Amino acid sequence: MQVMKILKLVCAVIVLVVASSERGESRKRGRAVTTTSFEYTALSCRAHSASLSDYGGVGDGKTSNTKAFQSAISELSKYASEGGAQLYVPAGKWLTGSFSLISHFTLYLHRDAVLLASQDVNEWPVIKPLPSYGRGRDAAAGRYTSLIFGTNLTDVIVTGDNGTIDGQGAFWWQQFHKSKLKYTRPYLIELMFSDSIQISNLTLLNSPSWNVHPVYSSNIIVRGITIIAPVTSPNTDGINPDSCTNTRIEDCYIVSGDDCVAVKSGWDEYGIKFGWPTKQLVIRRLTCISPYSATIALGSEMSGGIQDVRAEDITAIHTESGVRIKTAVGRGGYVKDIYVKKFTMHTMKWAFWMTGNYGSHADKNYDPNALPEIKNINYRDMVAENVTMAARLEGIANDPFTGICMANVTIGMAAKAKKQPWTCTDIEGMTSSVTPPPCNLLPDQGPEKITACDFPEESLPIDMLEFKKCTYSLKLA
Fold it and tell me: Where is it mainly found (predicted)?
């Protein structure tokens, strides 16, 4: 009898121990650390990596993460001279105001990560206007800092597995239309005075204004970017290289309320004085939808000059114009050595549009004697269908646009097209195998001149940059 009691007691103890062990294991599993592995291509890989969650980030779409981003980037800056650092943004909705990047740094977004731009204006510091503009674009005063900002940086990457940056722009668009903004609206990504930049594999939604704005920078690659905004949204330009050298834009899809790519270099007397051109720019494999603007615009802020732009393999769908040059008396500067080929256009208002009477000025102090120089503009191997007007080419009296070259261009006119498909004033140039027949200022030189408008044979330095495969394993709580 006594033995039976002892056996029962032993069994009870064993049950308690097992149960306790299982509860302990359960608690351990609840606190278990998981590991995520990922890889991507980049100009630089980093020696150190951390998650935003490690710095108090909360991805619930409601909690502000501005301080978490600032703290994480500040802490990771200590690795700048030790192989650089990467900040990983996990899946979730991460509400944030503006934050600034550092050198030798990568911001990486998980495919299910969404950065939500705060609608609290207190989370958007105000900075001075750009020196080459002299004022803000929306207002004469300063401008709100971009959501992701940086200045005087080297080797900076913003990338992901097609993670999303949502600017929640409707708030800003409404304020703009009501003329209630004291300062110019923020952009989504702006990097100034920087070198070696990569912006890639992201989806950008509903920017308050411009989406991607590298300015006064060099050695820039923008690739694999999807940009989407309502086609009626104000000034939601896609990618705006501005006073930049050696830039490559490729494999991007853009639907916007303004120009899909807008090439710039300063505004009137401020841009002339600052004197930083945009040059050595490659644009390839771009798809654009923008019913009220251009696929590629050169200007109108081009007072520092634009030179050596090469665009190829471009598709425009239901877009106002293909390539548009915008300038005016008072701009000064130049747009020259522009090469475009393999351009396909579907349902356009104009296939080609150049104007020397754009008119918008920073202030009344511009020099009326500062005339822009527009020359050596080349278009080759282009086809369009359902076009309202083939070309509207308007130079400046006593300052004609020269060296315009078009070859192997076929434009299918819409059923309700303009009776006069070409209008040309104050321009000079030539054509070869262009349909419908162009205006008299662009005489046909015969099929033997079909190669006259081709690209330069030498490659630009930006095409020499090589990507590395970066592989990471990151422990997540």
Answer: secreted
